[in-house]
Write a structure and sequence with these properties.
The protein is about 25% helix and about 25% strand. The protein has 14 helices and 27 strands.
Length: about 575
């Protein structure tokens, strides 16, 4: 059996040289358009463009931006569905040397207004579907361009502007679910370094067909760059428009070779497939964004070919891809968590204790990433930037970013991510890491998917609630779940309450939206059980308290309230 540390793709590809990061994203794209003019560049539904067509169309948008906004406007907001128009708008903005800020149409209007307000003087690019919303947000017709209705006689030639690779390329605003949205800033050089790292590690080739399964956000832009900066075809499915239910058929029908997605989307694509259904064209699954479980690896083994590789990754908005863990059909997973692997070029991973000191192998702490290729910081938030991005005084612009994620290293340096600091709960004086409970639930054969959250209770303090999607709703039973969890976890780690549902709410990026999980009614009471003290330090870190008596069935997330059954 080949070790994951020495397991890599063997697919032929064109290496991305380090020298190519000393330019702009638009220049790298234009090189691909010149090299592969007749190759398919992007396809979304029935609309497709070759590299030559995409480059010419983006040039038209770029000339329209300059004619409309001139040099005064430095930022361009993009309010488009995940479609060809979004790709054209992003490339058009980049060609002008202006930073783009993706605005996800699925966000609440109040969030969109908040983001737009922070951008200052800003032009908005929209598609036809979102033109009215863009007008409302901008408040001025002169600040909006509909890329689907531009003059077809606009110049289609490259602009040949002089733009520094250190210039701001884009501002990615987080969802802001715990407060005001934060804008993460990236320049061209660091973004190109990240694309270069992924290209060379994953062997992305012009013959590949790369999936784009996200709404208009930085994840969509990075998947787009991974394909279009390497001459590959970008194949788009807007699951926000109802495409998630047909994802498995779409993967097969479009002959996707590089399936890049978050963990929830991966499960959705194959969980409904029969035991013998396969995805023979997929050579590589590039997965991350959420915890990955052994059951996900089992799905990979069941539905993908012997030549396919399953790659778990660690990356966040403020970093490029930090680490990869490559798996094939023979890879053995030890422990509850699937590793996120070994640091990629340009990254050093540190595990820090509460005092900021490095921990020993096997000790859980906060993951910190040291690199010259981190995000520039947070848009208009210098104090937060100084708090999270630490100068190392080691030259070459190297800084350390404090991720807020928890993890530990194996003796060989392999990184294991176990959750987030803000996913910890403190109950009866002990810290609880909810992802450990999620991992145990997701290992139960009758569970399709589960998440665990901490909720505040006025009478009892914090309690843990498990939201479970069963494989067979008719056979779903809390007592069976409790019994099976008792064989995997100490008694005090059994969730207080169980909510059975047909599906979990997803955010625009395809991840489980924990903030949209419904709160339970306030009159549910605990049944009497004995609290068992933790037996060791590990159990102290994961401890929860007494079980609660509750079962609910939620048919869907639209307008539902929890109600007690029985």
């Amino acid at each position: 059996m080949i070790s994951s540390r020495t397991l890599f793709p063997t697919h032929p590809f064109v290496e991305f040289p380090l020298a190519d990061i000393n330019q702009t994203i638009a220049q790298r794209f234009e090189q691909q358009a010149c090299r592969y003019p007749e190759r398919l560049a992007v396809k979304a539904g029935k609309r497709s463009l070759t590299y030559d067509e995409l480059n010419a169309t983006a040039n038209g948008v770029a000339h329209a931006i300059l004619g409309h906004a001139g040099a005064a406007t430095q930022q361009v907001a993009i309010l488009c569905n995940a479609d060809v128009s979004m790709i054209v708008a992003i490339l058009g903005a980049l060609k002008t040397g202006k930073a783009f800020a993706p605005l996800n149409p699925q966000l609440p209007k109040i969030k969109l207004h908040e983001i737009f307000a922070t951008l200052g003087s800003c032009l908005v690019l929209s598609d036809e579907n979102n033109f009215a919303a863009a007008m409302e947000i901008a408040g001025d017709v002169k600040q909006v361009l509909n890329v689907d209705a531009l003059d077809r006689h606009l110049c289609r030639e490259n602009l040949k502007l002089s733009v520094s690779p250190d210039a701001l390329a884009y501002i990615n605003f987080t969802s802001g679910s715990t407060g005001a949205p934060k804008g993460v800033m990236w320049n061209h050089r660091c973004e190109l370094f990240g694309i270069r790292t992924k290209t060379n590690a994953l062997h992305i080739a012009p013959t590949d067909r790369v999936s784009l399964l996200r709404a208009n956000n930085v994840g969509a832009a990075r998947d787009m760059f991974l394909a279009l900066l390497n001459g590959a075809a970008l194949i788009v499915l807007d699951f926000g428009a109802g495409g998630l239910a047909t994802l498995g058929d779409w993967l097969r029908g479009e002959d996707i070779s590089v399936f890049t997605c978050v963990a929830t989307v991966f499960r959705q694509s194959v969980s409904g497939a029969g035991g013998t259904e396969k995805f023979p064209a997929v050579r590589l699954i590039h997965i991350g964004g959420e915890p990955i479980y052994k059951t996900d690896v089992d799905l990979f083994r069941r539905h993908f070919s012997d030549d396919c590789l399953f790659v778990s990754r660690y990356s966040i908005s403020e970093t490029q891809a930090v680490s990869y863990f490559f798996m094939n059909q023979d890879t053995k997973i030890h422990g509850d968590h699937v590793p996120v692997g070994y640091p990629l070029e340009g990254n050093e991973v540190l595990i820090l204790d509460d005092d900021g000191r490095e921990t020993a192998a096997g000790t859980i702490g906060e993951i910190a990433v040291r690199s010259p290729y981190l995000a520039l910081g947070y848009w208009c938030q210098p104090e937060l930037t100084r708090a999270k991005f630490l100068d190392n005084f080691q030259g070459a612009g190297t800084r350390t970013y404090l991720t807020g994620d928890l993890g530990y290293r194996l003796p060989d340096g392999c990184l294991i991510q176990v959750g987030r600091k803000d996913f910890q709960a403190k109950i009866k004086g002990f810290k609880v890491e909810v992802t450990a409970i999620e991992a145990a639930l997701n290992e139960i054969p009758s569970v399709r998917q589960a998440v665990v959250v901490a909720r505040q209770d006025a009478a009892k303090g914090s309690r843990l609630i498990a939201y479970v999607v069963p494989q067979d709703p008719a056979a779903a039973g809390v007592s069976q779940l409790r019994t099976q969890l008792k064989s995997r976890l100490p008694a005090y780690m059994i969730p207080d309450s169980f909510v059975m549902t047909e599906s979990l709410p997803l955010n625009s990026g395809g991840k489980v939206d924990r903030s949209a999980l419904p709160a339970l009614e306030g009159n549910q009471r605990a049944v009497g059980t004995t609290f068992v003290e933790p037996r060791d330090a590990v159990e102290e870190a994961l401890v929860i308290s007494t079980p609660w008596a509750l079962t609910t069935i939620l048919p869907n997330w639209a307008g539902t309230r929890c109600s007690r059954r029985g």
